[in-house]
Write a structure and sequence with these properties.
The complex is a heterodimer of chains A (425) and B (587). Chain A is of the alpha/beta class and 425 residues long. Chain A is 30% helix and 12% strand. In chain A, strands 1, 5, 6, 7, 8, 9, 10, 11 and 12 form a 9-stranded mixed beta sheet that branches. In chain A, α8 crosses α9 (261-269) and α9 (261-269) runs parallel beside α10. Chain B contains 28 helices and 6 strands. Classes of the chains: A alpha/beta (425), B mainly alpha (587). Chains A and B meet through α5, β7, α7 and α8 of A and α11, α19, α26 and α28 of B.
């Protein structure tokens, strides 16, 4: 993957250009964009707010991904016994070793794995698993299985990183409506799907009135209080997001299909101060009860290509060392196939942690295919909160025990930090 | 004098108190509060009527609406897309072509006996119906929104909207606007009826049966999708049943399916064996199972809380939840007594319930039109596009769990979108508007190429054929059975030919007349009147003062009389700004 900027052909990333043009001329160099919008130059200068520069992107594969047809235990004859028709044939496996391999459409993630950038975590789950999409994902969102928490684990992580809640736009959630995982005690997450819808349309003379909407006032109740808070954060954030999005030129490249990760790239490229991004897959095809082969093939390819594209973009803008991505679903699927050439809701699943800072390889004990539990299901071997703790403590450097409410052993999958990070790729 | 805000939330001590509000506490402001929550708000004239009627009769007229004539309700006028050959529509395009291979025809269309792309007409037919049912469902949503606006039974439409989000199915999977229409009719009919009967009807409803994979729920191979959701989302909530109950429940519903628009039970596919369910044991069928579910006290509490949270406020205390559950169960799941209890309770008029509800997008759009005094939904902006921008696509909820509602309706982006939709409604972009029903999006280019004389291969090429050599262009023409990409375009064209167009008219209302009738003499009085008419929570003082300054400046005078010949657009901007306030989003 070349580091050359396709827009300038100079090999200098737009981020560097922004730095070169620190006085505020940067974007103008590309033509058509005009001078740097003041908010964007503010965003660039506020990068110091993210002291460590570390970013976590959670890419949630909602729907219940069939882990057994994702990282395929093709070396285990039991796999084919449980799945006589929808089991993935050995010839369709991109082999990792004599036991496991990637599903054939996941070449993008396979390439990242071969470059040592992907940790595959087997058997991730929790005790007394729920088979309901909504219940199980709420357990994952709150990190409170068979229990609950008013706030999400990402929202609490933000408080762990910034206990005063002083930093704006700590959390970005690319979703139609706020994901429970980002519900935060100290921060108002920025939630959007379409950056263009994030623009307040107005006639020129209306502006003085609109400027008063975020004025301080006594709320009349809980709902009103919430709307007032969001009004304030909306006023601050909307221009910045749109400026970043319209400045993001790589979105025009038809070979880059990033799903919603393109918005994350745009914000990171604009040096947005966000440390925590949460992106639930939209229009998921992962709930494969019926005729699963074609939709699962497609969904895995889309996701895998998007992840590879995302990291090539990080490489291009010189931020590949700063970003780790975490991929999980709300559960895996039942081991034996059903009578509709699909699979029903299950338990343990495979997770991925991806990035330059990750020690690639396979982690965890793969669940047995012979000793099934809870009606033909996998027995999980790693509590998902151990993966969370690894990300919170090893990667972000926050206190995982406070965030999660109890200590969890981390997995040692993050590389020791280099003393000095190079500013340019 | 123009009326001023008489903000009259009851004391905090009324919270959770279900005893009735004393008649002496009834006033105009509380009548406005009632109509905003029970329905979609209304004009001062409508609120005045409720205020004059007294609490008891006001609630009675809203909840027991049947005797009230409802002259504007019109049946849905179909474009005429459907014919019986579309029955048992293929689940996927490969399914459609498999049938064509096997039988020489599919969906009433024959395979061509000779020539290239012999199955093209079949593939076109498949896409015709996908586009047709999608476009017709947009019309259906628009039709329903007009019913919400024009009805004299607002509680009926408000509750139907609740049931649509509660027993959620989406057209995107159901792929049949007729079944979605059938559901709206069902939800209106049972809007305030008996909840057990409604749930049984839903379990027999073709859209729901298809949506939750009933066709795969057969004896010996039960599919748990419906069984799980009926307990988790429709009646009891998680934690009140075991995984075994889910499996036994699924068995009881085996063989339940439909034939076109009618429920059908196939005894061959039904498991008639003994089931153990929630501690009971018998050869239950689906209806028996639902009866058992409705015997559980938790079911009444779950549903009463759902209704309360939809109508009143986001949070409900465990004590109130129990009390309202008892009311619902005591009435054997008839909804009207519960609604009467809620609407007459002190709790409903307590400070906590004032401004405690964030309007959902559809509710918001209907209320907005009522505040403007418009009598029908506009065609510009498009109703569906507006609510989609606000996070709610009628007849296409995001999942079987429906819309999260409450605080989930508001994010920074969605809040800004609310202001934008208000602007587009008040000051519509008539010359810039494009009808999305006649816009195939990225497929438009295919139409241009075909009409330019390109063959199908060239028209669907990734690169622009105009920039290819003749040699390359000829090489594009392949021997194939059909081309799906072109079908996507042709299907849209064929559907659009039949589609009854939505009249693209701006909303009809007259703010100048409203302000003049109100008696407001100054810009400040006009702002205060409009605020009083449209907002349930007064705007911040700073905003109010800025609005007065704005309107005075736009009018060039403080005098309404002096400005009456040209004040319409300044007033529209004033209302756009009012509707952009945080206060306008709550009732």
């Amino acid at each position: 993957m070349t580091n050359k900027n396709p827009l300038t052909g100079t090999g200098v990333s737009r981020r560097d250009m922004l730095r070169l043009g620190a006085g505020g001329i940067g974007l103008g160099l590309f033509g058509g964009v005009g001078p740097v919008p003041p908010v964007l130059s503010q965003a660039s200068s506020s990068v110091a707010a993210n002291q460590s520069g570390k970013i976590l992107v959670v890419f949630e594969w909602f729907g219940g991904n069939d882990g057994l047809n994702t990282i395929i235990p093709y070396g285990d004859p039991l796999y084919y016994k449980h799945r006589p028709t929808i089991g993935i044939k050995e010839r369709d496996v991109l082999k990792i070793d004599a036991q496991f391999g990637w599903y054939k459409s996941m070449r993008g993630m396979q390439r990242l794995f071969d470059n040592g950038k992907v940790a595959i975590v087997h058997g991730v789950g929790y005790d007394r698993p729920s088979f309901s999409h909504f219940t199980s994902i709420s357990f994952w969102h709150t990190a409170a299985p068979n229990s609950g928490n008013e706030y999400g684990w990402v929202g609490r992580t933000a408080a762990g990183l910034d206990p005063s809640g002083a930093r704006d736009n700590m959390i970005v959630n690319i979703a139609e409506s706020q994901t429970l995982a980002v519900k935060a005690p100290k921060h108002v997450p920025l939630v959007f799907v379409d950056p263009q819808m994030f623009k307040r349309g107005m006639f020129a003379q209306e502006k003085p009135v609109l400027d008063t909407l975020a004025a301080d006032r006594e709320p009349v109740g809980d709902a009103h209080k919430y709307v007032l808070e969001v009004t304030k954060s909306a006023a601050k954030a909307s221009e910045v997001v749109r400026a970043a999005w319209s400045a993001y030129r790589a979105k025009a490249n038809p070979d880059l299909r990033l799903l919603d990760l393109d918005k994350v790239v745009a914000l990171i490229e604009a040096d947005f101060p966000t440390q925590l991004y949460y992106v639930p897959l939209r229009g998921s095809l992962f709930d494969t009860h019926v005729n699963q082969a074609a939709p699962h093939d497609r969904q895995l390819q889309y996701c895998s290509d998007a992840i590879e594209g995302f990291f090539s973009e990080m490489q291009r803008i010189g931020r590949a060392d700063d970003v780790v991505m975490y991929v999980h679903s709300e559960f895996g699927r039942r081991v034996p196939e059903n009578t509709s050439l699909g699979t029903d809701h299950g338990t343990a699943q495979v997770n991925f942690v991806i990035g330059n800072g990750v020690k690639g390889g396979m982690y965890g004990k793969p669940p047995s295919l012979s000793e099934l539990v809870l009606g033909d299901n996998l027995q999980s071997t790693i509590d998902f909160r151990r993966v969370y703790a690894t990300l919170i403590k090893e990667w972000l450097g926050a206190d995982a025990t406070t965030v999660l409410g109890q200590p969890f052993e981390t997995l040692g999958m993050i590389k020791a930090q280099r003393a000095e990070k190079h500013a340019t790729p | 004098m123009t009326p001023r805000f008489q903000w009259s939330p009851g004391p905090v001590s009324w919270q959770d108190d279900v005893s009735p509000l004393p008649p002496s506490e009834w006033n105009y402001d509380r009548a406005a509060h009632l109509l905003a929550h029970a329905g979609f708000g209304g004009t001062p004239e409508e609120i005045e009527k409720l205020a004059d009627a007294g609490l008891e009769r006001a609630v009675e007229s809203l909840v027991r609406y049947e005797p009230l004539p409802n002259p504007k309700m019109q049946p849905f006028g179909e474009s005429g897309f459907w014919d019986p050959t579309l029955d048992r529509f293929p689940e996927s395009r490969p399914d459609a072509s498999d049938r064509a291979e096997k039988y020489g025809a599919s969906m009433g269309v024959n395979v061509k006996p000779a020539g290239n792309r012999p199955m093209q007409p079949v593939s076109d037919r498949f896409f015709y119906w996908l586009r047709a049912t999608m476009l017709e469902t947009r019309r259906l949503g628009y039709w329903w929104a007009n019913r919400m606006l024009q009805t004299t039974h607002p509680v009926e439409e408000k509750m139907a909207l609740l049931w649509h989000g509660h027993f959620a199915t989406h057209e995107n999977k159901v792929r049949d606007y007729r079944k979605m229409h059938q559901q709206i009719v069902l939800f209106e009919r049972y809007a305030t009826g008996n909840l057990r009967d409604l749930t049984i009807e839903v379990a027999r409803n073709p859209a729901m049966l298809y949506f939750l994979d009933a066709q795969y729920n057969v004896k010996g191979a039960p599919n748990e999708n419906f069984a799980r959701e009926v307990m988790e989302l429709f009646t009891m909530g998680v934690g009140n049943y075991t995984e075994k109950d889910v499996r036994e429940c699924a068995r009881a519903f085996t063989g339940w399916y439909f034939d076109d628009l009618a429920f059908k039970m196939d005894p061959e596919k039904h498991d008639d064996g003994i089931k153990e369910f929630l501690g009971r044991r018998d050869n239950f069928d689906g209806a028996d199972i639902l009866k058992i579910i409705f015997e559980q006290p938790v079911t009444a509490e779950f549903l009463a809380a759902k209704i309360y949270r939809f109508l009143v406020r986001d949070e409900i205390s465990p004590a109130l939840r129990k009390q309202l559950g008892t009311v619902l169960r005591g009435a054997d799941y008839a909804v009207k007594p519960l609604l009467t209890a809620i609407f007459t309770s002190k709790d409903f008029y307590s400070a906590a319930s004032y401004g405690g509800h964030i309007k959902g997008p559809v509710e918001h759009m209907v209320a907005l039109m009522k505040h403007l005094g418009a009598e029908s939904m506009p065609g510009v902006p498009d109703f569906n596009q507006s609510t989609i921008a606000l996070g709610q696509h009628l007849l296409n909820p995001p999942s079987v769990a429906g819309w999260a509602g409450g605080k989930a309706w508001i994010t920074p982006g969605l809040l800004i979108a609310r202001g934008n939709v208000a602007r587009d409604t008040l000051i519509p972009d008539m010359t810039g508007f494009r009808d999305w029903n006649f816009n195939a999006g990225t497929d438009n280019v295919l139409g241009e190429r075909l009409r330019d004389g390109y063959d199908i291969g060239a028209a669907t090429a990734v690169n622009d054929p105009a920039k290819m050599s003749e040699f390359d262009r000829v090489a594009l023409e392949r021997d194939e059975k059909f081309n799906t990409r072109i079908s996507g375009y042709i299907g849209w064209e064929q559907a659009a030919r039949k589609l009854i167009p939505t009249p693209r008219v701006a909303a009809r209302f007259d703010l100048s007349a409203i302000v003049l009738t109100s008696g407001a003499k100054t810009a400040a009085e006009a702002v205060d009147y409009l605020t009083w008419r449209m907002l349930r929570v007064p705007a911040a003082k700073q905003t109010r003062d800025a609005l007065v300054a704005f309107l005075t400046k736009e009018l060039g005078t403080e005098s309404v009389d002096r400005a009456k010949t040209y004040m319409e657009d300044p007033l529209r901007m004033t209302v756009h700004l009012l509707m952009s306030t945080p206060e306008y989003q709550v009732v």
